[in-house]
Write a structure and sequence with these properties.
Length: 75
């Protein structure tokens, strides 16, 4: 799995402390939403030239790690 440490940051006061990419105002959610809307990695990189392919892969790794820690509580 891609190591996202250092690429995914959480900062109080920035985007409601949502996970962002390298301290920018682009969130992991933003990138995942673009991918879910069928944007290719190349399209995202073209629209956001400050991002790198490694940033996008870090978002996917971060989301996978969050999903791995999802706990279902049945009542």
């Amino acid at each position: 799995m891609n190591d996202y440490s250092g690429r995914i940051t959480l900062e109080p006061g920035k985007r409601s402390c949502k996970p962002c990419i390298r301290g920018m105002r682009i969130t992991v959610y933003d990138v995942l939403s673009y991918l879910a809307a069928d944007m290719s990695i190349e399209e995202i990189l073209s629209d956001f030239p400050m991002l790198t392919r490694e940033d996008i892969m870090a978002c996917l790794s971060y989301a996978a790690e969050c999903e791995r820690h999802t706990l279902v509580i049945q009542s």
